[in-house]
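Re: Re: ligand-bound prediction request (bumping)

Still looking for help on this. To restate: I need the protein modeled with NAP bound, output as structure tokens. Inputs repeated here so nobody has to scroll up.
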Amino acid sequence: MNYVVITGASAGIGEEFAKQLANEGHHLILVARRKERLDALARQLFDKYQVKVEVIVEDLIEPGACERVANHIADKGWQLEGLVNNAGFGELGMFDQVNLQRQLNMLQLNVACVIDLSHRLIPSLKQTYLAQNKPSFIINVGSTSAFQGGPNMSVYFATKAFLLSFSEAIHEELKDKGIDVCVLCPGATATEFADVAAMNDTKLFKAGAMSAEDVVKSALDNRKKAIVIPGFSNKLMIWAGKLSPRSINRKVAHFWVGSGQ
Ligand SMILES: NC(=O)c1ccc[n+]([C@@H]2O[C@H](COP(=O)([O-])OP(=O)(O)OC[C@H]3O[C@@H](n4cnc5c(N)ncnc54)[C@H](OP(=O)(O)O)[C@@H]3O)[C@@H](O)[C@H]2O)c1
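Reply:
Sorry for the wait, this slipped through. Here it is.
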């Protein structure tokens, strides 16, 4: 029996990945901090889709958390066919004004955890392909933030730029090893993200946000591509950004994100 691991499955885009992957018939391993939410989702998915759903409660910012997740999966003998590196958060504010530890935690969750978990779980994904001739996949949840510097969200934008570069590189490395690697780059999406990042009053979120359902559908429909940008306006923005200088693009980002005051 093969499983898909989803980090940050207790809310938003991760929860939606769990629903749509369960609907495709995948067995799931859900990871996040809020146990009650994960347990409730696991029950709901089992009842509706008759898939096996395991729950691992971890704060992925804590030292050794990714190792504990990987060891738990190995100890249980759960074979993997997918990994969705989704857990992440942002914070609005000037770099020198936002709490330093919070920004280091962001780097840990949005970047280091993706490297750590991917490195530990890729052997199982490769094994599934070798033993069962069944392709497996990694989806890293990036952002349209990846494509330019982001004044007043500098560390968040930089974490997503890392994910874009990293994902493109391992897409090429792993494509002949039976693992499709994709980086999903959503724009504003209606989840708990804006609350956590204190972004509800920004022009970006006031202008409207895509549903997590549409974002995840776009990712799963296009999971063999290296980069998936859901939604026409997000695609248009990235395309226009390629035609204009970076000095303009970061000012456009600043306009949408605002001052954070
Ligand atoms: N929403 C947007 O506008 C948007 C746009 C572009 C990209 N994204 C990206 O999409 C991804 C998912 O965000 P979302 O919009 O779905 O936000 P969300 O609704 O706030 O969900 C975030 C998920 O991450 C989990 N998480 C946060 N800190 C964690 C930690 N320390 N350890 C383990 N899990 C943790 C949360 O679960 P617990 O709190 O239960 O731990 C939750 O399940 C993020 O990588 C984000 O950067 C979002």
